[in-house]
């Protein structure tokens, strides 16, 4: 009921009631409703129209009506429409063209053409290309090398060179490696130990690194990372949608994964 109250007449969703609609929160809303098998409780056609109208001539997507362009929004748009089985609503070839234009010499991706490579943007671009079946554009070995270099002596992963490790990159980096079939290129045991050391024994939540305050954001990505590492106490998580594999299978959503 809360999620439904966050939908606007335009079809988009805000982060909370009375918050402006945005692609980020529209994807989150669709993911939540899909998880609870409740997509039929919203106006899907309006949501599709909202996403479609945010695509620009070059294939990129605005995050909202104010016009910021970012590859995160490309992923949000494509993932949202894939979950709704409405990918045909957008110009797929143009969307692919824009994402590929954001590829850098190191095999990674930035938020826009010429922007610095970042693990979060890599995940978004790989996710977009995976859903659209265009992973042939990727140099998997080159990108895999950049991603595995994100692992630090502590076992944790950072988002880009010279940054501190952060539990959230246990998702962005790991999921990216999984998509391109290079997950075995990192030390899984050391990463697992880093993630578990970041858990608060009293509350059960996870922080960004050992000893720091816990929050829902890092708890989600810590658990998702552990799932990708094969923790049998957790349900398998889909590396593209960050949702249960059971839910993705129920929806019949197709996506592409590479192998070595």
From TrEMBL:
Keywords: Metal-binding, Prenyltransferase, Repeat, Transferase, Zinc. Residues 1-243 form the Prenyltransferase alpha-alpha toroid domain. It is an enzyme of class 2 (transferase). Binds 1 zinc ion per subunit. It comes from the Eukaryota. InterPro entries: PGGT1B-like (IPR045089), Prenyltrans (IPR001330), Ptb1 (IPR026873), Terpenoid_cyclase/PrenylTrfase (IPR008930). It catalyses: geranylgeranyl diphosphate + L-cysteinyl-[protein] = S-geranylgeranyl-L-cysteinyl-[protein] + diphosphate. GO terms for molecular function: metal ion binding; Rab geranylgeranyltransferase activity. Its cofactor is Zn(2+). Its EC number is 2.5.1.60. GO terms for cellular component: Rab-protein geranylgeranyltransferase complex. Pfam families: Prenyltrans. CDD domains: GGTase-II. GO terms for biological process: protein localization to membrane. The keyword Transferase applies. Heterodimer of an alpha and a beta subunit. Belongs to the protein prenyltransferase subunit beta family. Catalyzes the transfer of a geranylgeranyl moiety from geranylgeranyl diphosphate to both cysteines of proteins with the C-terminal sequence -XXCC, -XCXC and -CCXX. This is Geranylgeranyl transferase type-2 subunit beta. It comes from Amblyomma sculptum.
């Amino acid at each position: 009921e809360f999620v439904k109250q966050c939908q606007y007449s335009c079809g988009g969703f805000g982060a909370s009631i009375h918050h402006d609609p945005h692609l980020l929160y529209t994807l989150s809303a669709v993911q939540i409703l899909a998880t609870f098998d409740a997509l039929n409780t919203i106006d899907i056609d309006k949501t599709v129209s909202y996403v479609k109208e945010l695509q620009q001539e070059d294939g990129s997507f605005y995050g909202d009506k104010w016009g910021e362009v970012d590859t995160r929004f490309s992923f949000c748009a494509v993932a949202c429409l894939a979950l709704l089985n409405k990918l045909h609503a957008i110009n797929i070839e143009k969307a692919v063209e824009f994402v590929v234009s954001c590829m850098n010499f190191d095999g990674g991706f930035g938020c826009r053409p010429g922007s610095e490579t970042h693990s979060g943007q890599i995940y978004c671009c790989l996710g977009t290309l995976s859903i659209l079946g265009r992973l042939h554009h990727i140099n998997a070995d080159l990108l895999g090398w950049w991603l595995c270099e994100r692992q630090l002596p502590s076992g944790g992963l950072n988002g880009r060179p010279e940054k501190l490790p952060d539990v959230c990159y246990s998702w962005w980096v790991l999921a990216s490696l999984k998509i391109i079939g290079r997950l075995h290129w990192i030390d899984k045991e050391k990463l697992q130990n880093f993630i578990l050391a970041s858990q608060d024994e009293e509350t059960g939540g996870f922080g960004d690194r050992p000893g720091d305050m816990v929050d829902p954001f890092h708890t989600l990505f810590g658990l998702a990372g552990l799932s990708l590492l094969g923790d049998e106490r957790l349900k398998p998580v889909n590396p593209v949608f960050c949702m249960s594999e059971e839910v993705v299978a129920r929806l019949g959503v197709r996506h592409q994964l590479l192998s070595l």
